[in-house]
Records
---
Amino acid sequence: MAARTKVSIRINGTAYSHEVEPRLLLVHYLRDVVGLTGTHIGCETSICGACTIMLNGAAVKSCTVLTVQADGGEVLTIEGLAQGEELHPIQEGFWECHGLQCGYCTPGMILSTYQLLLRDSKPSEDEIRHAIDGNLCRCTGYQHIVDAVQYAAKKLRQKAVGNRILDPI
Amino acid sequence: MIPAAFDYLAPATLEEAIRALGTHGEEVKLLAGGHSLLPLMKLRLASPTLLVDLGRIPSLGLISQEGDKILIGALSTHYQIESSKLLKEKCPLLPQTARVIGDVQVRNRGTIGGSLAHADPAADMPAPILALAGELRATGPQGERRLKAEDFFLGLMATALSPTEILTEIRVPLLSGRCGTAYLKAPQKASGFALVGVAVWLKLSASGICEDIGIGVAGLAAKPFRAKGVERRLRGKNLNPSLIEEAASHTAQGVDPMEDIHASGEFRADLARLYAARAIQEAAKRAGV
């Protein structure tokens, strides 16, 4: 077995440090080592987007990133969004607009939405659809997800200070 | 889906990375964004014993201008290219192409150098680099080497890079004057990879004559190529739809089209002719024809 490598990663604001095999995928690290199982494993082939998280301010499919590549980085997962019992505005949007049915794709959808709203506070419907192109949902038909993103964008704009509606992580 | 075990190095400098390549033989692979290599490793189609991660070499991820060229570090992500103000203003063909690669998450990680060095025949990025007659720079134990885009791609997933060289930079021209560019592709519906993708840049004279044109074609053949026969038919001419269509009908001439479950060779050749015509038309329109 290959030599283990020490990694230090901040996840949802908490510092973690572990020795891992270089081949350990980030999604397995989050779920099996750190115990954050909100990030889902879907296709495992970088297609479905269920495993989407934010790494250093960019949405990535954590099934296609090695844990060692994230060493020294900042990670945001679905567990890092709500403030206690208060849902994040994106989560609230999915709740209010029925942006989910089975919920399997939802953590990934929400993190992709986070990425979109980080880059564009007022996306058009076309831009929303382009932005969630890497996330598959087999229940909703997407329309309610688009509605949820629009709800969240509006809500975040109302709360925003200046141009920025989200913090990078 | 878990890759076979491997050792991992993340050098901080290019020199260290080249040394690692030289001393570990055939079983070493370079890791850039990992969006071609890691899927292959998870499927166990690739099982390197050592990965050398280039992601900790910051100088490889910069986009800058030098004279009449734009220098793109090989580790620049598709998103960096898609959103680069410099490229959008001075060489929009690259952002136009980057925007239709994969999806947001893939563009956040996938790199231009990784895509070119992997040389997947269905990858998008080779098409604009060929159309722009880009220059690629690679560094190995003997120093830096300059390669023309046309000489870089040798065949199916094969390039002119030697096993001990690292692709470090891609240089493309600043487009000035009355230029138009377009990248159009027929994507495979599920994967988004190009069944056929055509990149065009063209330059018009003040009187509207096509002074110069470059056309790169991806997806059609085992290696991406420049459609020189089509370019020749348009250079020096006044562009109009029937001339463009006639010229584009030669896109697949002399080319052995790929066949797979997604498209027959005949269909790919048809798509190439159609998308070449549309892309030239679009570029001409953007140049103000």
Note: Chain A has five helices and five strands.
---
Amino acid sequence: MSQVDTVLLPELDGPVPATLPSALGLLSLALGVGALVAPGPVARLTGVDDSPAARSVLPAIGLRELGSAAGLLSGRRPAGWAWSRVAGDAMDLTLLGRALAERSGERRRRVALTTLAVAGITAVDVLAAVRVGRARRARARVIRMQIAVTVNRSPAEAYRFWRDMENLPRFMAHLESVRADDLRRSHWIARGPAGHRVEWDAEIIDDQPNKSITWRSLPGTRVPNAGRVRFVPAPGDRGTEVRVELRYAPPAGALGRAVAKLFGEEPEQQVRDDLRRFKQVLETGEVVRSEGSPNGISVRQQAMQRPAQPLPASRR
Amino acid sequence: MKATAWMGTDSVKVIDVPDPKIMNARDAIVRISTTAICGSDLHLYHGYIPAMRKGDILGHEFMGEVVEVGPQVRNLAPGDRVVVPFPIACGHCSSCQRGLYSVCENSNPNAGIAEKIMGHSPAGIFGYSHLLGGYAGGQAEYARVPFADVGPVKVPDEISDDQAVMLADVFPTGYMGAEMCDIKPGQVIAVWGAGPVGLLAAASARLLGAERVIVIDRFPYRLRLAEEHIDAETINYEEADVLDTLNEMTAGRGPDACIDAVGLEGHHGNTAMYAYDRAKQAARVETERPFALRQAILACRSGGVVSVVGAYGGFVDKFPMGAFMNRSLIMRTGQCHVQRYTRPLLERIQRGEIDPSFIVSHRMPLCDAPKGYKIFQKKQDDCTKVLLKV
């Protein structure tokens, strides 16, 4: 069995990128340690050394920063911790606003500079929180599938058919066409609801003859997607276990909803149907049709089958 | 063309529909000469098989003349007289290659629904609900036959239509029912149901060397057929206790193998027992009335075979698992893998070893199909098997 957590779309499949949150975590750590260990110099530097309250508030702020640092550096819930930093920033700016109003001269200048610096950090914090949140939601939208079928053909035959990407629309119902541009790259057109089409370019990123094929959409695709198919000899000389893993990352918004509709409520069922058709094409030569299911297997259409009688001439 | 269509529970009509056309390269179109109403069509007629739609063309027992073949069909040509097996089978999946044609892995385009009910999907069947493929059936003037390079068998001139059409379903099904009993010399075989399949299972048990064959039913005219054509002993379960009688006939051993040729719409001599399952079935709490199966299990000698060829569709209650397990019984079952039997059984007919058409009671034109269903359903006019002539 393959691992469900295989990374096929690194920018969407892997962990949420943590560089910025980690950097902010380090900043929190430095500020926190500073405020705890040397509240006096920090108070002087920021121009609030004249306030007895500052001496008790600064270590508390330091503790808060250490909390944020621990959270951000742990790597868990980075969006939440980034927003905790934004909340801290808001509190700091409020305190600094009040401090600014009460001071003049050199101290006022230092408080103003501190305010400016904190405002800058706030902007970075907001940016980080928004980006991390967006990345997390994009990952949550990724549709992951892992489905297998046994085909009474050798791994070499099954591989050969799949490796010619132009064959894919013969069994993948949502595809209108695939054009091979060269041995690695191909252009895909999927049929969407209400005549919408989704197009993208894909490339084969790993090709193990008679064993596996891995492909993914090129960067910049509106609907990033990737797949891997493995051809494993079935035990007992029963042909080939064709094991497919797929990733689709529908964007947010209208296009995302359209893509979701494309795959219906049970995306796995549709891919299962695709693999059934793959088996039919390989074993019998084509997709098997009945009068009730003239387009072949389709779970969606099973709910609204036409009667089992010959099609009228207009539908042939 | 004219075709017999399911219009709802207890309703069929002969309607006009478009002529069939080739849809797959391995299809053939057959102009039907003789087609039959099967006992299992009555399950559809009564609404016990799910996923029927108004307008579905019925019929899975038919034969006729090839009028058109798809580009991949090389074994048949227009003009060939053929009989068509009821399961649709691709011939290339591993089930087909092991001879298990009725569980072909490719022929049910609606496998997804079948899997939800049965775990895995069986083969598609002509005119037998959308659960089993949504294929138009053969009680019509023409039929499209998928995988025509695998299923249809050419019929020599000396074999009549009435004989040949038995090869579509009932004779192979009965034969497989007997074959699954693994009959050895001296054995006693009991058959529940003296319909076409039960009678042909009993006749096949004779062909396969059974010492004694006992047929159980409630219609004297059908039991008479078993006595006259198969030289079988009979039990009318409305007149005698089946288990007592079988024990007495076999000196307490029980039959060596029991064939259930009844299926999901059984009847029971005890009115209360019948009412219990009939009510549950009507409320769809239970989909079957498995009287014959329960009785076959209780009757069978310890270590014997219970062979089930009667059709079931869903779930049974009060399955006597204790008897089944504690007495080392063996159950063998399946929709018939007809493609495995057509040629050998055709040869048996040619050699004169059996004439399966002894079960035919009625012949009528296709346009009388609704009448045929009615008299078959009501067992009127000593009806055993209705053939429709086109």
Note: Chain A touches chain B at residues 150, 152, 238-239, 269, 272-273, 276, 279-280, 283-286, 288-294, 296-297, 299, 302, 305-313, 316 (CB under 8 Å).
